[in-house]
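Field notebook, page 249. I keep forgetting to write these up properly, so this time I am using the form the group agreed on. The chain and the ligand, cobalt (II) ion, are recorded exactly as supplied. Prediction of the bound pose follows.
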Amino acid sequence: MITLRSQREIEKIRKASLIVAEVLLKLKEHVLPGVTTFELNQISEDLARKHKARPAFKGYQGYPFALCTSVNEEVVHGMPSRKRHLQEGDIISIDFGVVFDNYFGDSAITVPVGRISEEAQLLCTATEESLHAGISQVVVGNRLSDISHAIQSYVESRGYSVVREFVGHGIGQHLHESPQIPNYGPPGRGVKLKAGMVFAIEPMINLGRPEVEILKDKWTAVTVDRKISAHFEHTVAVTDNGPDILSHL
Ligand code: MF3
Ligand code: CO
């Protein structure tokens, strides 16, 4: 069952999502060579508290941090560490979510650490653009898999690969609600999109092969070929006037 949200509820999800967006913007300024991923985690917790919001990931299925920090070949769910100092040339995906007034917001960006290779920059740009290709399908009357298909087509036409093991999701009164939103698939399948549905769309895109594995820490997903990966995510509402990106500042 996919919950349809009233305009009042959508505004609450927007509030949560805008807090996430502001935190990500601030974190971006701190992504510099030498900074540890643990410091980024602490900053995200402090900022959430300042906004009177609760970090949504901390404690979720036992995840111990507020933030996910996935560096280079780490795809998603990278765990912050006091020992992981960012280095010039790295890319880092920072994924954050909060609950505010009982509603959730969820967003992620991948940012460069200092100067990075053109190859890495192109992957990041293509991943963000694939998210927007997906969002452009968030239109009343379209089918759910039109989002998936748009992302996959965009990504594969550029020679990159789509991660299959993790998907986007409905969001609202929980971090993860139905439906699941794969970042690949044929067009024209799944439910018809209706005004009031709210989705977190989150392509994870690999430079090399699509396969991922989970490290012994039980959380960190890395590419099997250890080539780099990027991740962008927005919380988006379906409206009669097209997609409303709730996590856009
Ligand atoms: N944006 C991710 C998701 O929607 C982050 C979840 S991390 C977790 O799954 F720790 F909360 F699982
Ligand atoms: Co998410």
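OBSERVATIONS:
- The longest strand covers residues 91-100.
- Helices lie at 7-30, 37-50, 118-135, 144-157.
FOLLOW-UP: compare against the apo run.
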